[in-house]
Amino acid sequence: MRLQRIGAVVLALALVTLVSGPAAAGPATGTLRDELDAVVADGSPSAVLEFRDGPRVERLAGGVAELGRQRPAPVDGRFRIGSVTKTFTSTVALQLVGEGRISLDDSLERWLPGTVPNGQNITLRQLLNHTSGLYNYTDDVLVTPEQVVRDRYKRWTPQQLVDLATSRDPLFPPGTAWSYSNTNYVLIGLVIERVTGRSLQTEVDRRIVRPLGLRDTEVPARHSVRISGPHAHGYLQVNGEPVDITALNVSSSYAVGDIISTTRDLNTFYQALLGGRLLTPAQLTAMKITAFDSGYGLGLSKVALPCGAEIWGHTGGIPGYLTFSFHQPGTSRYFSLSATSYAVVPDVALFNALTAAFCPAGTPAGTPAPLPDIA
């Protein structure tokens, strides 16, 4: 199984759109406790979640923090959030738009001259909503679990990641189609650094982490490989056996998926973002304008649930960890979940957990859209 399988699964779940009307047939969703236990039963050593509905806050944990030991997974545990990082990166970029320092219609060439062929015809908006047509560099780097384990401490520079992508032909002319490409957000990160004169790590910290008091959220330094504080271990399956991959240099996920956080901090972040505390109304509106039929805006995904509820957020997959973080507009409901799946991705159980959080009790569970298998 290729490593991109995890990313493909969480992306497909993020972009799934169910036909409106009667709910799809399936088992009735249970309580959040039931659904979290199902995620663990379906192959995750651990899973943690936080659900907020106004003053009500429910925090749950299931499974063990480490295979072969009985210590339970910490309910306040930290984890790698994968591509949920993209919402943080996009928020910083849109703040710069609101400050008049960049425009979504600026060409990439204006800010990073000579970095990407045809950069004069690629806009920052097209990077943020994945319509640039640029090849996805993660299709060529750390593709298999064996490669991840072998190169787990290797340091990558953002320019090396861009060079990997630009060594391949573009998928289509800019703005003519949609294709999820991590290359886009590497470039947005570099634009942020060029405009501000500071590291992306510094900008995320000063603009989001510190103002919101996200005490358990950090953008790791490029030399850092550890998850500090309480956390469950993440694993990859190699030759049929689990290999602990908790210690990992995530420089290959710069601006794309390198942040560490908790369910509590993610809910606080999305509550502030979607509540208008981080962006102006104009920029928040722009964030929700989706491209083509993708359901993807500017670092934000839209999901339609079996009961007709529409939720916004993002999913993330990185070796050892899967993350979901979503909110239902017009309500005070926020839901974040992290699971340490490594052999079998519990896609139906994860989707059912979303349904249980945002749909009325007894709503039949839906079936996720067909999940692309890149194996």
From TrEMBL:
Where is the secretion signal located? 1-25
Q: What class of enzyme is it?
A: hydrolase
Cite the Beta-lactamase-related domain residue spans from the record: 47-331
Alphabetically sorted, this entry's keywords are: Carboxypeptidase, Hydrolase, Protease, Signal
Q: What is its EC number?
A: 3.4.16.4
Q: Which organism is it from?
A: Phytomonospora endophytica
According to UniProt, the name of this protein is: D-alanyl-D-alanine carboxypeptidase
Classification via Gene3D superfamilies: DD-peptidase/beta-lactamase superfamily
UniProt cross-references to InterPro entries, sorted A to Z: AmpC-like, Beta-lactam-related, Beta-lactam/transpept-like
The GO molecular function terms of this record are: serine-type D-Ala-D-Ala carboxypeptidase activity
